[in-house]
Design brief:
heterodimer, A: 567 residues, alpha/beta, Pyruvate-ferredoxin Oxidoreductase, domain 3, Rossmann fold, six-stranded mixed β-sheet, 21 strands, 19% strand, B: 292 residues, eight-stranded mixed β-sheet, 15% strand, globular, binds thiamine diphosphate, binds iron/sulfur cluster, binds magnesium ion
């Protein structure tokens, strides 16, 4: 095997839940980033706390690569169950370093019994550090940096623990280096110094940072995989940033109190997944009717019902698009990478605030759980300020204006009174059943005028590839990176990619971008092509091919490369 | 106080606004009582927010000259909590029905008591669903017949007072629209109380509940005397189990519970409501730098 010239290398660590697969991966990811490599890690984790079989794929590269690949260059089984779990991804070229495969003794395995080594040191809990050591030894990484990291990490636990961990690391390192030596592998992954400017975060944290930058100061949410990461992130930083974070009793409480918070001038967000969002839908309609902004993050997982709680999907676009009874406007965004999530989440607060509507950020398990190195710069004072007006005595919450947007007052900030009503109402906010003038005027304001305004500011798709394309591949959210890479790798000419950071409503210019292509191809993780159908419905252009998957797994670069070659 | 100042604190609404309640409805009496209590505590309409769900009682805010958020059926409590927690300077009052608070919103009733925001919850208990034209409510008594319960209600009525005490609500009271002086006194005390006050106020619905009338409530209630001590929880719980006759008064009171707004910690140093606070980008940028 020749991996001397690799600038892109994938390590997969597999073990039972509770064996520390994730913690080794996180430690490794930090070490590799510090060495100047780009790291992307995605996890394949079962919905259980013990047993089962989990794995993490760590992709290490010179250039930025943030997509899932099937190929495994180095496989680290902490448990023999890993072989069956990853059968389809292990090839002849895969170097295997770890426990043996009981069912296939012919396959060469560089045997390292991590648990045994750990036990020799004193406790099996060191097994994952032995594995981290073996990976570093294999890759020929200078020992000093990882050892300092371990010291830093365990210093609170006392000298003995620090020393044992270092011993575990060194033992592993030696075995890993030995394997590489015997295989004549010398690593030449080129590192890049600009990695220093990149920040490390999982997708959920990118949403959280974006919320902070958008002035989020309130979150009330109910835990649900895979959306909980955002709640955890904000809770961890609540004190420092002065954010009101409350674990709600249920999703109905979560969204209703967030709407109450916006009514009183706060900037709130909820985070949830499909089932939890189903419970929130009546309140989406409330936000629409009362013209109270709200920002809603929905991290999708496969349904129906409880579905596959720790797997990925893009099945809930229709749910989010049509959630809530009655007709009112909304905006839906779909970040693809952490920098998109950061900017888009901040932007969502502005859109919600300016247009006084519910705004959605639609992500999925793959994105929120994946770990990225992202070029996220500092936000300047180009800040996001409240569009809140001091009220006059004759203030009318639903004043009919040319634009359709009424100045947003909040209680206790001026001489006026702020009356919000979920019944149809007059300009002041009092119940009305005037169907001759007020009902049509309010519909015009809430729906038709808002639609126009929102279309004008709608984000355009990002087109990459050749300018005059024949085939245009459309993606949204999580598939941005994998489609980009598969297009670069495929053998087709005149193929380009349009990633949509906003799914609804559409900017009027989208039509021209789509019309230029002779064939439109959609890539989505659902059964029917929900976004393709939406484009056809709203813009009147049809798709010639649909590349769809609803098996709960993310697309791999290899999957899509093959699909594109066959177009 | 000058005349204009007085007017500025008036919770009256223009006469032109059409009131949708039926003649003889207990809600009129409650509206009058609450306005009197508001005068007692001297709150201004600008700093007061009424929050309600949906129902006849929930239309209350429409007929009061203050800020309001008239939300969804059952969901008044979380909205009110969000408002109060975002701006503790506001006086937040919930006026909604028995069906709205104890039925559709029952989960919020339980868990808002656990949170203890400093708001006043006034439940207009007419033992019926008024707005939907007379079906059983969670407080309807066994045997009450309605178009949907033609053979009479067979489900056990909820005891909101016992429930609230057991969950640790710090101010639990019952009063009656038929006893306006008593009701005014209780509601004024509730407004002045620091913490969640739960008031169940009996309210006749002469149109859809022909059993629980003004007269019935008079005959089936009695006012607790001065000697009653509401701070003894076990004693209060026992009192709450009396249902014939129903005791009226502050059944339970605990002055030592921290409010939600104080417990969440964001107001311990900075007293500003959330809308007045600016984003501190240096904190965000530091957090980002830690991840390099
Ligand atoms: C989600 C939902 N379900 C049902 C209704 C219909 N509904 C409106 S008010 C009400 C019951 C009201 O009873 P209560 O809260 O006791 O108020 P009252 O009219 O008696 O004052 C119902 C069932 C609704 N508006 N929303
Ligand atoms: S239906 Fe009953 S509760 Fe409603 S206004 Fe009429 S009398 Fe009052
Ligand atoms: Mg009722």
């Amino acid at each position: 095997m020749n991996i001397n010239k690799l600038d892109d290398f994938t390590i997969v660590i597999a073990g039972q839940a509770g064996q520390g697969v994730e913690s080794v991966s996180v430690v490794m990811a930090h070490i590799l980033k510090k060495q100047g490599y780009n790291v992307y890690a995605s996890k394949d984790v079962m919905s259980r706390v013990r047993g089962g079989m989990d794995s993490v794929s760590l992709r290490v590269s010179t250039d930025r690569k943030d997509a899932f690949v099937d190929r495994i260059d180095l496989f680290i089984p902490l448990h023999s169950g890993g072989y069956k779990h990853l059968e389809h991804r292990i090839s002849e070229d895969t170097v295997i370093m770890g426990v043996e495969n009981p069912t296939d003794t012919k396959r060469e395995v560089k045997k390292i019994n991590f648990i045994q080594v750990a036990q020799d040191i004193g406790n099996r809990i060191f097994a994952n550090i032995v594995a981290a050591g073996a990976i570093c030894g294999f890759l020929g990484i200078n020992k000093e940096l990882p050892i300092n990291k371990l010291k830093e990490f365990f210093t609170k636990k006392g000298d003995e623990i620090v020393n044992k961990n270092i011993e575990a690391f060194k033992k592993g390192y030696l075995s890993g280096a030995h394997v590489a030596f015997n295989l004549d592998i010398e690593f030449s992954l080129v590192n890049k110094s600009d990695m220093e400017d990149y920040v490390f975060m999982i997708g959920a944290e990118a949403i959280g940072f974006g919320a902070l930058a958008g002035g989020c100061n309130m979150m009330s949410s109910y835990p649900m995989s895979p959306a909980t990461g955002v709640l955890t992130f904000l809770a961890q930083n609540a004190k420092k940033c002065g954010i009101l974070v409350d674990q709600a009793t249920d999703e109905l409480g979560a969204i209703n109190s967030t709407i109450g918070a916006w009514y009183a001038g706060a900037r709130g967000m909820v985070t949830t997944s499909g089932g939890g969002f189903c419970l929130m839908t009546e309140a989406v309609s409330l936000s629409g009717m009362t013209e109270t902004p709200v920002v809603i993050h929905v991290a999708q997982r496969p349904g129906p019902a409880t579905g596959l709680p720790t797997r990925t999907a893009q099945e809930d676009l229709n749910l989010v698009l049509y959630a809530g009874h009655g007709e009112f406007m909304r905006a839906i965004f779909s970040p693809g990478l952490p920098e998109d999530a950061y900017n888009i989440t901040a932007h969502s607060f502005d859109i919600a605030d300016t247009f006084q509507i519910p705004v959605f950020i639609l992500t999925d398990q793959h994105f929120v759980d994946a770990l990225y190195c992202a070029p996220i710069g500092e936000f300047s004072e180009k800040s996001f300020e409240n569009n809140i007006e001091v009220t006059e005595k004759d203030y009318k919450r639903y004043q009919l204006t040319d634009s359709g947007i009424s100045p947003r007052g909040i209680p206790g900030n001026g001489k006026g009174l702020v009356m919000a009503d979920s019944d149809e109402h007059d300009e002041q906010g009092r119940i009305t059943e005037d169907m001759e003038f007020l009902r049509p005027a309010m519909m015009e304001k809430r729906f038709f005028k808002r639609k126009k305004l929102l279309e004008e500011v709608a984000l355009l798709p990002e087109v990459t590839g050749e300018d005059d394309y024949e085939i245009l591949v459309i993606s949204w959210g999580t598939n941005k990176a994998v489609v980009n890479e598969a297009i670069e790798r495929c053998s087709k000419d005149s193929i380009s990619h349009a990633y949509f950071p906003q799914l609804f409503p559409f900017n009027k210019k989208v039509k021209d971008i789509l019309k230029k292509a002779q064939r439109l191809v959609i890539v989505e993780n659902n059964a029917v092509g929900q976004f393709a159908n939406l484009i056809t419905q709203e813009i009147g252009i049809s798709f010639s091919e649909r590349i769809l998957s609803c098996n709960g797994k993310p697309f791999s670069v290899e999957d899509l490369e093959e699909e594109f070659n066959n177009l | 106080m000058t005349k204009t100042e007085q007017n500025e604190k008036s919770f009256d609404i223009p006469k032109s606004i059409d009131n949708q309640w039926c003649p003889g409805c207990g809600n009129f009496s409650i509206l009058h009582i609450i306005k009197k209590s508001l005068k007692d505590v001297d709150w201004s309409p600008q700093d007061t927010v009424f929050v309600s769900g949906i129902g006849q009682a929930a239309k209350f805010p429409q007929y009061s000259g203050a800020n309001y958020f008239n939300g969804l059926h059952g969901r008044a409590l979380p909205v009110a909590t969000g408002i109060k927690a975002s701006n503790p300077n506001l006086n937040v009052i919930i006026t909604s029905g028995d069906g709205d608070i104890y039925g559709e919103g029952g989960d919020h009733f339980i868990h808002t008591i656990r949170r203890n925001p400093n708001i006043t919850l006034i439940v207009h208990n007419n033992m019926i669903y008024g707005l939907t034209k007379g079906q059983a409510s969670p407080t309807s008594e066994i045997g009450l017949t309605t178009p949907v319960q033609p053979d009479g209600v067979y489900t056990e009525p909820i005891n909101p007072i016992a429930m609230a005490i057991s969950l640790g609500a710090p101010f639990v009271a019952r009063t009656s629209a038929g006893n306006p002086r008593h009701a005014q006194d209780i509601i004024t005390q509730a407004f002045e109380f620091e913490g969640l006050s739960v008031i169940d106020i009996f309210q006749p619905c002469p149109v859809f509940n022909k059993v629980n009338t003004y007269q019935w409530f008079n005959e089936h209630t009695y006012v607790l005397d001065e000697a009653y001590n509401p701070s003894d929880k076990v004693n209060a719980f026992e009192k709450s189990l009396e249902t014939d006759k129903f005791p009226l008064g502050i059944i339970y009171k605990n002055e030592n519970r921290a409010t939600f707004e104080n417990a969440i910690g964001i107001y311990s140093e900075n007293k500003e409501p959330l809308y007045k606070r600016k984003i501190d980008f240096s904190i965000i940028n530091n957090l980002l730098n830690e991840r390099k």
